[in-house]
Design goal:
4 strands, 15 helices, elongated, Sufe protein. Chain: A, 53% helix, alpha+beta, 6% strand, single chain, 355 residues
């Protein structure tokens, strides 16, 4: 076997290992693979479903004992980006006039923009003239939110949707995936990195992290801007290495990697790291990755995937701690090239495996 063949089969084995790992994590974490649930649908699966990056909480079961004036008032609670997008009613026996009063009073939008934790704490008053319906509505939201929190639902940032941000993100991603294969130009690299940070990062919140990968492997494959974007990210991250283009995503697309590179250009003076220090930090990175993978498979402590440093770009819903850590690594990259990528990044550790 030639060296070229050996390298290819070595990369193929790495890809197979990572693919199987992500499939296993999707099954362990979400109980399904590419939308297929191997076992019979459980009560939890009926209550919490996922579609195009949005978690939908169905209150029909947790709120089955909550009655309005005419009977049960099941709701659908839509959660994305860590916050409630909207709450809508399912078919029920309430008088339509009562629900029009709820809408007019603003009750149906009372939880919009809140995290599940904030929604659980929010006090909402019943609507005069539609007391039974409004109380049932409020209690259904509380029941659905409480169930989701108990079940460990962590609504995660997703790829951009079908709006201007989604289309812009798709365009920037395609440029980063294709143009560098043929063009090697410093000016183009600068433009691509600025677009990665501005469009993929701050505007669209589109990047590879564990939340995105688990969503891709557990969700149904659909034809939409978000799904196509996720598929391209996976192709670049996992399949490019098979063609000898390992780390293409990290070098040309990752918004946080680009941000570190741009910060590094602010100063030519770098802090020297000895070979021993580099090896030690790399060992720490590998140990961290193994620990985090163990937590994911164990099912406890898995919420770390909701706080990966990339989520700092989604300022509206990001933790201030994550934003602070992201800012610290950005400043550190002025004197140490790509410190987070080289010595910490759990996502990068996974993407290196097929290379």
């Amino acid at each position: 076997m030639s060296l070229k063949q050996y390298n290819f089969w070595s990369r193929a084995a790495g890809f197979a290992a990572v693919f199987c790992l992500l499939c296993a994590l999707a099954l362990v974490h979400d109980g399904r693979l590419f939308g297929y649930k191997p076992s019979a649908e459980s009560e939890s699966a009926q209550i919490i479903t996922r579609n195009a990056g949005t978690e939908i909480i169905n209150t029909a079961i947790p709120g089955k004992d909550i009655a309005g004036y005419g009977g049960p008032v099941p709701l659908s609670i839509y959660v994305s980006g860590g916050r409630i997008d909207s709450v809508s009613s399912q078919p029920n026996s309430e008088t339509p006039g009562f629900f029009r009063k709820l809408e007019k009073a603003g009750l149906t939008h009372a939880w919009d923009g809140l995290t599940l934790q904030e929604a659980a704490r929010k006090e909402v008053d019943a609507v005069s003239g539609a007391t039974y319906s409004s109380r049932a509505y409020i209690e259904n939201v509380r029941a659905g939110v409480a169930y989701a929190l108990d079940a460990g639902v962590h609504a995660r940032p997703r790829s951009a949707g079908t709006g201007a941000a989604g289309l812009a993100a798709l365009a920037v991603l395609l440029c980063g995936a294709v143009i560098p294969l043929f063009v090697h130009n410093r000016l183009y690299r600068l433009i691509q990195q600025l677009a990665n940070v501005g469009v993929l990062g701050f505007w669209a919140g589109t990047f590879i992290d564990y939340a995105m990968m688990l969503n891709f492997f557990s969700g149904s494959l659909t034809f939409s801007v978000a799904s196509v974007t996720a598929a391209i990210l996976m192709i670049v991250g996992l399949l490019y290495p098979l063609a000898g283009k390992g780390q293409h995503y990290c070098a040309w697309i990752c918004p946080f990697g680009s941000l570190q590179d741009l910060a590094g250009q602010l100063s030519k003076r770098k802090l020297p790291l000895s070979p021993t220090a580099v090896r030690t930090l790399d060992t720490v990175r590998q140990a961290l990755w193994i620990t985090l993978m163990t937590l994911l498979f164990a099912g406890w402590g898995a919420s770390w995937i909701d706080y990966e440093i990339f989520t700092a770009f989604i300022v509206r819903s990001a933790s201030w701690t994550v934003i602070g850590v992201g800012a610290a690594f950005t400043l550190l990259s002025v004197v140490i090239p790509r410190p987070f990528c080289r010595f910490v990044c759990p996502t990068g550790s996974l993407l290196k495996q097929p290379s």
